[in-house]
Amino acid sequence: SNLDYSSYLKGWIRTVPNWPQQGVMFRDITPLLQNPKTFRMLIDIYVHRYMTEKVDLVAGLDARGFIIGSVLAYELNVGFVPIRKKGKLPFTTVEEEYELEYGNAAVEMHTDACKPGDRVILIDDLVATGGTMMAGYKLLKRMGADVLEAAAIIELPELGGGQLVRDGGLDLFTVCSYK
Ligand code: PRP
Ligand code: ADE
């Protein structure tokens, strides 16, 4: 079941204390991605969850959301839209500012990246304060998209991001959580 997969996959996430700054427990997904079996198990959880839904697009958040989002889009046979850190996209964009566990930032999306009514899965690796996921959600809503669900690998409930997202009216699916 997904619960068994969840504890197994969690064993492939590495915790690096005090990175990138003192007090942050960094949850590093690179071991999970590096192992072909766990990478496939992870992607398959999302594929099985969304393959029976009518999905038009997967939108991935810069940068770790691109790694899993593009593979998910490919497997669902839909397009992929990057939501990028400010200043990276060349065409006309919409922009949302947000706060991070460590700093401030803004994300952008191309104005032609989705059409009103497009059914979108929004994906990132981790939800901490929820600022990044909410910024992505706001961009997609401003473009008139129908965001079916937000998905991530990891949720940090202590930081309240999962609750912020769900209270903001967006369903959030995560594979593991760290109390
Ligand atoms: C991390 C992570 C999420 C975000 C979560 O990205 O990959 O995108 O922070 O934090 P939040 O819930 O508090 O918004 P980061 O901005 O460090 O960038 P990266 O993916 O380029 O490493
Ligand atoms: N992004 C925000 N907080 C994080 C954490 N604790 N580990 C990995 N990525 C993060």
CA gyration radius, whole angstroms:
15 Å
Any idea what the shape is? Answer: globular
Q: Determine the number of helices (DSSP H or I, runs of at least 4 residues).
A: 6
Please tally the β strands and state the result. Answer: 10
Bound molecules: 1-O-pyrophosphono-5-O-phosphono-alpha-D-ribofuranose, adenine
State the end-to-end CA separation: 21 Å
Average predicted confidence as pLDDT: 96
Work out the oligomeric state of the chains in this entry.
Answer: single chain
Q: Given the helix and strand composition, which structural class is it? A: alpha/beta
Spans of at least 5 consecutive residues with low confidence: none
The share of residues in helices is: 25-40%
Could you give a short account of the major beta sheet? 8 strands, mixed
Run of helices and strands: HEEHHEHEEEEEHEHE
Strand content: 25-35%
What does this structure look like?
With 179 residues, the protein is α/β, with parallel strands linked by helices. 34% of the residues lie in helices and 33% in strands. It contains six helices and ten strands; from the N terminus they run H-E-E-H-H-E-H-E-E-E-E-E-H-E-H-E. The strands form two sheets. Strands 3, 4, 5, 6, 7, 8, 9 and 10 form an eight-stranded mixed sheet that branches. Helix 3 (36-50) packs across helix 4. The radius of gyration is 15 Å and the shape is globular. The structure holds 1-O-pyrophosphono-5-O-phosphono-alpha-D-ribofuranose and adenine. 1-O-pyrophosphono-5-O-phosphono-alpha-D-ribofuranose is lined by residues 61-64, 100-101, 124-132, 161.
